[in-house]
Each structure stands twice: as structure tokens, then as C-alpha cells.
Write a structure and sequence with these properties.
The structure is a homohexamer of 270-residue chains.
Chain A: E1 4-6, H1 25-34, E2 39-42, H2 49-60, E3 64-68, H3 75-79, E4 80-85, E5 88-93, H4 95-102, E6 105-109, H5 116-122, E7 131-134, E8 139-142, E9 148-153, H6 166-169, E10 173-176, H7 182-193, H8 197-212, H9 224-235, H10 240-252, H11 256-269
Parallel strand pairs in A: 2-9, 2-10, 3-6, 6-9
Antiparallel strand pairs in A: 4-5, 7-8
Helix pairs in contact in A: 7-8, 7-9, 8-9, 8-11, 9-10, 10-11
Chain lengths: 270, 270, 270, 270, 270, 270
């Protein structure tokens, strides 16, 4: 496979993504979408929010345009800007404008990381106006009927400076995500990393031990994603203890004592 | 419905918006407008300020140009700037200049969020000069007789850094907004979300309980808008307790204990 | 009246503005202007500094170019900059350069709000050099003999960060402004808002009550401008107590207790 | 006299400026210039540093290029930049490069206010290399033999953040300035403002009283410049007490008690 | 040898770099690469991380594109930007986009030093999407199958402000690096600097002494690289004590007492 | 002599600079250069670091390109940038790229003052890669064999914010500079300023007295450069006490008491 280039609007999810529902999140998302209400996903890193959005995009048959937000993301990055190309000045729609026009799902990941003007640009899209003011173009776009807005954030990480303002959050239907149950998580790990059920269960057990250490020296426990990483290394012949060390322990902490403690946990399991 | 593009000056509100007056705000706005005095709307998020502006725009038969202010909004964003298009440099009026020329209502939402130069650019528009200096064009525009300036802010959120200066606020006639009375709010919820009166009343009761928690763990109570969201989800078949959880509780707080407390309140009601 | 566009240099005040002198400010301004000394106006918001400048501009028969200063105002905004228009690069004078060339009065309102380079650009204009260095053009302009520089600031608002430096202030003749005497203020309110003398007097009495609360919960008392606003609303049929609430009380404070106290004051008067 | 435009390099001081030497500053400056050593002037605002530079420029028959430094002044502002004019890109020398080429005196007033890159750009000019690296042009200019660099700063105002670094100050011959002696100051005031000797003496006496208050409520005493302002107002018919109030007291402080105290001082004298 | 210019994509490592493995890092990197999992290298400066990447690039026969991250590095620096060249506007891929297209190894050294938008731009490349959104071009590139992402950071230096977020680190397989064992380090020093084994051993002994002082006055001990520097100076005739002083002691600290202590250590050894 | 313009690459030092070695710095620099190791010069201002670099450039017969670093110096300033000239966009190498191509000595003076991206751009030049990545050009330059990198910093001035990071300093051979011995310094002063030996000795004695005050009221003692300044003024007829005051005392401090104390010292000597 070589590098392949595609337009965001064409980003239809072609095959059903592997997704295990953890509650009624699918039907609530559908009810919100039926009412054209925007949706907010909350939850820790690596617990499946991105996969859920891919699943819903596949289910609703809409293209999925994802924007990972960061400190320097401005409203112009979302809405668009004039660019000079070949002597001509051309307007280039940003990913949000593309989604609004194409009736896509626009998913703004970790929205609170972005600059404050991005919050405001989504306000008129997130109430019953469903409109995107494009000030540099001098027009307002009323969103296509199919357009859907979703945002995510991780309440555990937010500082006071990076909180979701009430005037923003009180526009969204909010869904809370967490790690799956042990049996479902083992099923996911086995399916994704091609290890047997017993090993997957031990990896999940190990993950739960690290999650119990959250707040007592660990900032965050191991996510489902890390279990899949460890499984994949093991499937390529890396010894389980080494795989847990590299794919999990070293990935969640730098603290020497913590690393030793976690190392002991994995030695006791494998 | 597909995406539709329109000019801000053409943004006439065609149908009478649904608006229930909570006091004499309509007649005071009309007296201020008759004297060409600018108006300041104060109040919490989701209590109807935007809807009131739509209603007044419809009543006064003027186009409504709304600007949601934010940390990075500068005077140039409001007044206009030169853009290079197709080899030519063209001046593009910002939304404020458009409103000044077209005799529209310019509504600057959450004005204190904007950068400080925006305050200053509205000063000569907000006293008896009613003029907009456009320094980059090198001209001054005296506003059309129909032009109307309105701004909003939420006193509850303001920090010392983002306060409305006396030299700004002492130019406006100020209207205070709050949540409607229980019976009116139930009427609004029923009308907007298509649920029956009994359910709407219970949603309002639930909202009032959350509003009483403001300051004791909740930053803000549930707005009228959130009740409408819950109503809409219920109307699509989501069970009331789940709808209250997703549309209201999770939308106003991330705190686990608070969520449990609010959950109990809703379970006792539905 | 439709929107009207004019050049700053043509901003002659055609009709004598209504201005009641509160001391010898007119003759001192004239003596300073005769000596080509720059003038600094100090005083609270809404007490008539802008009106005084309009009056002096009318009296001295010079165009008046006002710049409202703010956090983002740079020296280039005052002096000018190169702009690209229609393929050509053109120099566009800023308002200060226009005034220097045209022999106008340049009035920099709230100068301390501007960025620091603006202070420095006025230094050589504010001593006996009376010259404006235009570094981007590579020239120095010696001001027209008629040119007059005036600045204002409000000592009550300044923080340590936004103080007028001694090297700046020790270049100006300084005039202190305050609210007019009760009888004069009543006369001004009656004249400007078209209410009868008795009502105007009661409005002034109310204003004085709020001014006495300055420092005990109010950041600033009601300015003359707000009394005129209240008068205008009353003249359009708004009941006096409501007019005082919207035009005065809500315009000067957001504090619920303070609002109640001020409300009582107005109820006792009207 | 209308506005007149001139090039910085042509800024020869044609008539001998009125300057009263306060020590051996003239001969030391001449010895430094003979050795091509740069000079640093220290002293409070309004005590005659600028006038001294004009005098030396006249005496040495070199053009004087003055740059008032500020928070936003960058090395490019001093050295030069590319500008696009009429389709062509042209290099425009900044004032420092002009002085270096033309063998002028470059006087950087309040150097510590400028951005840090300005300090560095003068370093190779301020040691025996006497060279200006122009990085954007890709060349180094060795200064004309006549070139002279002088800078000023006011030690009383500097904060820790805006101190002259040892690596900068240890390149200059430093001259300290202060207010002139009483008799000389009276002579200067009488000469410049056209008042009689007795009044000039009383103004100087008044200035000395304010200077004694420095540190006890006054940030800085009245400068010689302010005495000249007061003298000029008096010469136009303003009563002495009023002139002292507007030209001196209000120009040095905003503090109500201090103003009253200073007012009493002036009343006792005039 | 004169200066030679080459394209990043052509940066194949032609000769096997000298690299001594300290554990199973080579096989774990290969297992991660086989699963297309990104890799994070942790460890102190000068311990061989860069050399390891050169070795893996040679082993995997992929070009190596290294980016040294810093405070001002933005996502655009990595992804690319439009540049105007000869009248035409051309898109120029950044080093990350080049690596994604060419199937190279992209090694982001000291990633936490970069601006926050860089973190986000690598997120979709660092999970199973393996895609690079190029927002300014308006396209998404799916990475070539050969593409490999590696990042490094030094946990010892990180402040709270410059920590690797859990949402970033939980995407990587992490390898911890440290100084080699004494015998291996001596072998490396002798090989690289052409000194005899005995001297190399004494240099390593000296290095270990400085490493023991870490935390008691030294921020960091001497790295392997510094030992090679000292060896090279000695090989050119510099006396060992002087070489240790210049190449090691002065390179790790400025503290006079610490320098004296370290000097004594080296005197006792050589 | 008129202003003369030259290219940095042609900056060969034609005559042997006057330099008195204070230790083995010349041979260590030569050994480092023979190994192509970069060099770091440490020491206080005015003690001869710049002169030493001129001397080594003369000795090694390489052009010397000096960059004085400052807060706003970016990697682009060192590496180069695209400039638009006469309708064409041209790449202009920065001083570092010029040195890398021409095999010059690039001397970055006070490197820690520069922005952080400059540190990073020199990292691959300062290890055995000896390569300069020019990201905007999209190429990597391998340095000419003659290229030499040298940097300086003054440990006494550095704050925590402006420290040389271990990952930077552990790439350099470090040379420490200090003031010369008394007899050598007297020789230097006599040679450079054309005063007799006795006077030069007294100036050195005076300098040593000020250096003893370092830390007890003086931030830094008098540098050799200042002694030469004083000598030059004396040679032009300025009395020694006055010369010490202007060229030394006022150049090192603003403190009135300190100035008096230093004045007394000089009076006792001359």
C-alpha cells in the first residue's frame, strides 16, 4: 500500500467498524441526530470515542470529518481562508465548512484544547439556528439537513483554564464513555490483536490493576488501546513481560518506582 | 433541505419567532430604539436573549446581524479589512460596518469576550455621534437612521479581567433577563419540544431543583434550552430518566457525586 | 437619514455644540493652543470631555480627528501604513498624520489604553520639535502651525500597568474635569432630553445619591449621560422608576443588593 | 507655516540651540567623539538631554537622527526592511542604517524601552568594530568615520525587567544629567517663556518644592520644561496660580491630596 | 569535502552505523514496526538515541528524516505550507508529509519541546488510522505502508508544562535508554575517539563519578558523547586533565565549587 | 573613511589582531577544530572573547561570521528565508547557512539570549552529523570540512529561564575566560589606549577595586574595555578622575552611594 490522498467529504466509512456498545449510546445518538441536536462525548483517552464516531458515521451513512483540536487551532482553521494559488486568490473551505455544506458528521476531538474563537464559531451551529457565519466570505451558511456536530472532551484532564463554558456545554446532548466491562474488553483485545482469550483476559486484569493505581502515583491507567498494543507485540514474539513493559508500563509513566511496581504486577501475571 | 448561503443584510426574520415576554422589555427596547439609544442585555445562558433579539428584529422589521464574540475577535473582524481577490485588492466590510450601512440591528453576543479594541470601536457608535471610524479605509461612516446596536453579557461569568468598563456600560440602556416563571417555562417547553403539559411541568420542576444547587456544587442550573432538549429526546422515545441524564445532568456538570445527586432527583420525578 | 461617509480632515463641527463651561477650561485651552502646547483632559466617563473637544474644535474652527485608544492600537494605526490596492502599493496616512498635515485637532481618547509605541510617537509632537517621524516612509513631518494635540485619560481607572509615564505627562498642560454643579447639570439634562426642569432636578438628585455610593459598592456613580438617557426614555413614555432602573441602575452595576438599594432610592424620588 | 517634510539625513541643526552647560559634558562628549566612543546620557525627564543632543549636533555639524524607543521597537525598525512599492520590492534603510551611512549622530532616546534585539544590533556599532550587520540585506556596513552613537535612559524609572545589561552599558562613555542650578534654571525659564526674572525665580522655587516631595507622594518633581509651560501660559494672561495648577501640578500627579498640597505651595508663592 | 546538499527522502544511511545494543531494543522496534505501531524513545542526552535511530534506519533500509523539535515548531513546519516562488504559489511538503508519502522513518527528537499543535497532527498518524490530515491542502494522506513514526523525549528534563499528555503517550510503544555498561562504554569511547583501552576505561570511571554527583550539585552527569570528545582532544595532544576540564567538566557545569571538585576527581585519575 | 559594505563570507581578518593568550586556549581551540568539535566560550563581558575569535579566525585563515543573539532571534534569522525582490521570490541564506557553505567560522555571541528554535537548529551541526536542515528549502546541507561553530555565553548573567540546556552544552568543548593578570592587563590598556605604563597600572588597580565590589553593590566590575575607554579619554585631555567617572563608574552603576564610593577610590589613585 502506498500513500493515498482523499478529500474529507469522501471519507465514508466503507466497512462496519468493530464496535461493542457499552450502553444505550447508539440509540441516544440516533435520537439526538433525528432532532438535529449536537452531541458531546466525554471520557478518558483510548476508551473508544473515536471508534464510536466511526461506527455512527457508518451506521448513519454520512462522511466523517474529524478535527483533532489543539492550542493553536483557530476558527479560521475550521471555517476556511483565502489562499493565493497561481496568481489567483481562492477561498478554501475549512473542515467545518466542508461538513456543513456536504451534510457530513463533523467531529471536533478534544474541543477544549482549541482557541476560544472555535467555541464561538460552533455556537450558532449548535442551537436551532444551525448556521455557520463565514465572516471573511461575508456570508452565512445554513447547514445541510444531514449535518451533524459532535465534540469530545476528557473531563479528567481539564484545568480551570480549559473548561467547557456553560454557554457552550448547555447546547449539547452529552454521552459519558468509560472502559468496557472486563469480559467485553478481553473480547475486544483478542479480536483486535490476535491473541488467545486467556492472554487477553490476563492483559485486561493487568490493565485493571493499573487503573486502580490512578491517583496513587499514576495519572491515568492503561487504556484498551495499550492492551491491544501489548497483544500485537506478543503476537510478533515479544515475551509478555517485555511487551507489558514497553507497550503499557513505559507508555503510562516515567516514574522509576512506579515502573518497578507495575513491572512486579506484570511478572506476577505472566 | 440543503446548505443555503445568504448575505447578513438579508437576514430578515420572516416569521414571528415564538417569544413570551417576561416584563416590559419589549416596550423599553422600542423606546430606546426610538431615541437611537443602544441596548445591553444581561442574563444567564439559554434564557432567551438570542430569541428576544430575533423577536425584536421581526417586530422592528430590520435585518439582524449577530456576532458571537470571543477572545480573538478584533475590531477589524467587526469593521472590515482589505482582501486580495483575483489580483485586485478589495475592501470587505465586516458585520458591524454592514449593519451601520444597511440600517440593520447589530447584536454583539458576549461582548466582553472580545478583544479590547472592539469595545472602543463601538464607543462612537454608542453615543450621540453614532459614527463608525473606519481607519483602514480612512473614512468615518455616520450610521443609517435605522441602525441599532445591541450587546449582551452574562454578569455571572465575568472575571475581573473581562468586566464591562464603566466607560462602555454607561452608554447603554440595560435590560436584565432571567429564567421565565414556572408556568411560562412549562408552556415554552411543551410548545418547543412537543411533549405534554404534565411532562413539561415535571421537567421545569427538575430544572428548578438544579438551579437551587447553583453555588453548592453546580456552576449553573439547567437552562430552558436544556429542558427543550430533554423533551425532544423523550419525544423520540428515549426514557425520561435517560433523557434527563444526557440532555441535562451530563450537560451541566462532570462531577461524579453531583451527577449521582442529580440522577436521584430525576428518578424521584419520573 | 442614510449612512453618510466623510473624510476625517473634513470633520469640521458646523453648528455650535451645546456646552456649559465649568471653569476657565476654555481660556486655558486657548492659551495653550496659542503657545502650541498640547493639552491633557482628565476626568470620569460621561462628564463632557468629548463634548468639550467638539466645542473647542468649533470655536477654533479646526477639524476634529478623534481616536479612541485601546489595547491593540499601535503607532502604525496612528501614523499610517502601506496598503496594496489594485496592484499598486499606496501609503495611507493614519489619523495622526492626517491631523499633522491638515492642521487639525487630534484628540486621542483614553491614551493610556493604547500600546506603548503610541506614547513615543507623540513625544516629538508634544515638545517644541512638533515633528512626526514617519519611519516607514523615511521622512519627518513638521506639524502645520494649526495642528493641536489633545489627549484624555481617567485617573480613577488606571492601574499601575496603565499609568501615564512622567516622560509623557510632563509634556502637557492638564485640565481636570468633573460632573457639573447640580443646577447646571439639571439644565443640561432638561435641554438634552426634553423633560421638564422638575424631573431633571430629581434625576440629578438621584445621580448624586449614586455618586455618594462610589467606593461603597459602586465602582462609579451615574454620569450626566445616563441622566439624559433616563430623561429620553421618560419622554417616550417609560415610567420614571423603570427608566431609572434600565438607563441608570442596570447600567452602572450588576450587583443584586446594590441594584435593590438603588431601586429604593429611585422609588423614593419618583 | 504649513506641514513640512524632510529626510532624516538632512536634519542639520541650522541655528545654535539655546543650551546652558551644567558641567564639562561638552568637552567629554567631544573627547568621546574624537575617539569614536559611543555616549550614554542618564537623567530625569525634561532636564535637557534632547536639547544637549541638538546642541552637540549643531556644534559637530552632523545631522541628528533621533529615535524615541518603545516596547514594540525592533531591530528591523532601526536597520531597515524590504517594502513592496509599485510592484517592486525596495529595501528601505531604517534610521540607524541611514545614520551609519551618512555619518550622522544617531540618538536612541530611552533605549531600554525598546525590544531586546535593538540592544544587540547596536553592540557591534558600540565597540571597535563600528559595524552594522544588516542580515536581511546579507551585508555588513562599516560605519562612516563621522558616525556617532548616543543613547539615553532614565535610571530612576527602570525596573528590573528594563535594565541596561552590563554587556551593553560597558560599551559607552556615560554622562549624568540633572536639573540645572536655581539661577541657571531661572535664566532658562525667563529666556524660553518670555516672563520676567522675578517670576522665573518664583517658578523655580516652586519646582524645587515639588522636587523635595519626590518619594513622599510624588513620583517625580516638576521638570524645567513644565516651568517653561507655566511661564508661557502666564505670558498669555493665565493667572500664575492657575498656570501652576494646569501646567505643573496636574501634569505631575493625579492624587487629590497631593494636588491640594501643591496648590497651597503655589498660592503661598504667587 | 565541501558543503553537500541532499533531499530528506534520499537520506538513506549507507554504511552500518556503529551501534552496541544495550538490551532487546532492536527486536522490540522491529516488532512494533511490523505492526506499524509508533515508537517512543526515552532517555538522557548523549546516550545514543540518535545513533540507534540511524542504526534502525540502516537495518530497515528506510530513509531517516529527523526533526529536532523546539518551542516555535508548529504543525505547519511539519506538514507543509504554501510558498510563493517565481510568481507561482507552490505547496511545499514539510518533513512529516515527506516521510508519510515516501514511506520513510520520521524521527521527532524532543517532541515535547514543540508547540501543542504538533502533538495533535501526529495523533491520527499514531493510531490505526495512520492518516495525516493536511488541512491547508484540503486533503488527507493515508501513510505509505513503510512509514514509521518515532519520537523521543528526556523524562528527566520535563516540567509540568512540557509533559507528554496521556492521550499522546498512550499511542506509542516505549523504549527506555540509559548509559551503556562500563565495559561497553569503554569499548565505544576507544572505538570512536581512537584512544587506548586503558585511557577509555579511566574516562568512563571519571564519567561515572560525575553521574553519581547528579542531584548533588550537578544537573546531569557526563554523557558518552563527552567522553568521546575528551578522547579526541587527548588524541590530538591535549593533556588528559585539561581535556577532561574542557570537554567534560566545563561542558556540564558553570559552578565554581563543582568545577573544582570535578577537577580534583580528574586529577586523581590521570 | 566612508561607510563600506561587505559580504559576511569575505570577512577575513587581514591583520593579526592584538591578542594576549591567558592560558592554553589557543591550542585547545586548534585541537577541537582539528576534530571538528564545536567550541563554547564562557566569561564576563569585555574580557576579550570577541577579540579571541578574531584572533583564531586570523590564525585559521577562515572568514568570521558573528551573530549577536537576542530575544527575538529565530532559527530563520540564522538559516535564511524567502524574500520577494523585483517580482521574483529569492531564497536568502542566513549567516549560519553562509558559514556552513563557505567553510567559515560561525560565532554565535550570547547564544542563550536567542529563541529556543536557534538552539535546535545548531544541534545537528554540533554533533557528528555536521548537517544543517533547511526545512523551508526542503534540503539538508552537510557542512563544508572547514566549517567551525563557536558560541559564547556569560554564566554570571543567566537566569533559570535562559540557561544552556544539557542537551546543548554537552555537544561543545568549553573554554573559560576571565580578566587577564594585572601586568598583562596593564600592557593591554597601554597598548590599546596610548597612555603610559604607570597610568595603565593605576587604571588596572582601580578596575580590581571595582571587581572586589562585585556582589557588594556592584553587579559587575569594570571590564578591560572600560579601562581602555578611560585611557583614551585621558589621552584626549580629560582629567583622569573625570575620565574614570564617565568611562568607568557611570558605565557600571547608577547607584548614587556606589558612585560616590567608586569616586573616592579613583580620587585616592589619581
Amino acid at each position: 500500500m502506498n500513500a493515498r490522498t482523499l478529500n474529507p467529504e469522501s471519507n465514508f466509512i466503507e466497512r462496519e467498524p468493530y464496535y461493542e456498545a457499552i450502553g444505550s449510546e447508539i440509540s441516544i445518538f440516533e435520537a439526538a441526530y433525528a432532532n438535529r441536536l449536537p452531541v458531546l462525548l466525554k471520557g478518558p483517552t483510548g476508551c473508544g470515542k473515536t471508534r464510536f464516531m466511526e461506527y455512527m458515521a457508518w451506521r448513519l451513512k454520512r462522511p466523517l470529518i474529524t478535527v483533532s483540536c489543539h492550542d493553536d487551532l483557530t476558527a479560521s482553521d475550521l471555517v476556511g481562508r483565502y489562499l493565493v494559488k497561481g496568481g489567483e486568490t481562492v477561498w478554501v473551505d475549512g473542515p467545518l465548512a466542508r461538513a456543513v455544506r456536504a451534510g457530513a458528521i463533523c467531529y471536533l476531538d478534544e474541543i477544549v484544547e482549541a482557541r476560544k474563537d472555535t467555541m464561538v464559531v460552533i455556537h450558532p451551529l449548535a442551537d436551532d439556528r444551525r448556521a455557520l457565519p463565514m465572516e471573511k466570505l461575508g456570508v452565512i451558511i445554513e447547514a445541510s439537513a444531514d449535518f451533524c456536530l459532535a465534540i469530545s472532551y476528557n473531563p479528567g484532564y481539564q484545568s480551570v483554564l480549559k473548561d467547557l463554558k456553560q454557554s457552550t456545554r448547555q447546547r449539547f446532548v452529552a454521552l459519558e464513555f468509560d472502559y468496557p466491562s472486563a469480559s467485553m474488553e478481553a473480547k475486544i483485545v483478542a479480536t483486535e490483536s490476535d491473541v488467545d482469550a486467556a492472554l487477553a483476559e490476563r492483559l485486561v486484569k493487568f490493565a485493571q490493576m493499573t487503573r486502580n493505581l490512578k491517583g496513587s502515583g499514576l495519572e491515568e491507567g492503561a487504556s484498551t488501546r495499550l492492551l491491544i498494543h501489548a497483544g500485537k507485540l506478543i503476537a510478533k514474539g515479544v515475551p509478555p513481560v517485555t511487551a507489558c513493559q514497553c507497550a503499557i508500563a513505559q507508555a503510562i509513566t516515567d516514574d522509576a518506582e512506579m515502573l518497578a511496581a507495575v513491572q512486579e504486577l506484570s511478572s506476577s501475571l505472566f
